[in-house]
Amino acid sequence: MVPHFILSDQTLFTNPELFEFDYMPDQVLFRESQLAELAFWIRQGQEEASLVHVICRGPSGCGKTTSVKHLFREIEEETDGIVPIYLNCQTDQTPFAIYYGIYARLFGKKPPRTGIRAEKLVSAIAQAVPDRTSILLICLDDVQHLVQHDAVGEVLSSLFRMHLDFPECKITVITTTSDMQLDFSRIVDLPVSLTICSEEIPFPPYTAEEIREILFLRVREGVLPGVISSGVLDQIVSKTEMAGDLRIGLDLLKRSVLRAEHEGRGAVLREDILLAYGDARLLHLKKKVQGLSEEERAILLRVHLLEERGGGGLISGELYGNLIEEEEIAYSIFMDRLENLADLGLIDLRVRQARGKTDVILPRYSREEVEGICKF
Length: 376
Hints:
Elements: H1 32-47, E1 51-57, H2 64-78, E2 82-88, H3 95-107, H4 118-132, E3 135-141, H5 144-147, H6 152-165, E4 171-177, H7 190-193, E5 196-202, H8 208-222, H9 230-243, H10 246-262, H11 270-290, H12 294-310, E6 314-315, H13 316-323, H14 331-343, E7 347-353, E8 357-363, H15 367-374
Parallel strand pairs: 1-4, 1-5, 2-3, 3-4
Antiparallel strand pairs: 6-8, 7-8
Helix pairs in contact: 3-4, 8-9, 8-10, 9-10, 9-11, 10-11, 11-15, 12-14, 12-15
């Protein structure tokens, strides 16, 4: 079959922004129950005297951020008396940065970046809320990034303590995290935690059928007819499900279409997907590695080093024995770090029965890829 070539100044996209990570769809598919739960607890925060903390927990690329932003947009458009404030903890990683962002959104102007203490910002926010709104609704997105700076406990305790110090200041906090082990009850001050109504909303990974439906709609609205065939879409869905992150599929679509454009073709071929997948995987890897602590990054590098030397599945006990030769670390802490790597999709942990339960560690990326990203 002779391929159909396009002119160099033509594009295969009709709506390219549909494939950007921060695109906000009019409807959030397959997250209706999570949206309903979020809305319910926000109402509870308005109606009850108790403080409300909603935890949205699930792996990367499963709709947590999109769901919260979608609900915040509806609140801004249709609800009076609530000020929704979204903060990305990947960029705002310190208590001062968090308070600075809240202050700027609440007052419509930025406070001085120097010469003002964090405590003063918190006090100004707490005193202003009763006059400006009935409730302050704050989302700390990817809150696990605050853990690396030992800031989670301070930030959450300060926010919830506002209500204790200023009873008319109502506040609801939504946190999203891909850290499946993060226990908020251990990091918030005990007197504060006793006043909080905490609710967790799980966000499971999208199924293959759900991924296909979401990507199909983006393709239908975002590129010209015939650019992505049904077979090509199936291949992208398969790789997206394998990665466990919907953003991989969106990036694959975008990169494969751009590659077809570059070659002057009017349709995406299998080779476009294969070449684009390498780029998408490394982008995915880079973002996940950036969120790791130094200790987790060291474990990930050691996994690849030992797995390559052994030539087979690496046993968790073997990795721990090798690690404690250089670092004193409790086995429970070691396993927490290892399980976080698994939750992020950087490794697989497979349980094997051999004189008791043991974990076999299987890398999901090559040593060259991991070392290239970790040491960049």
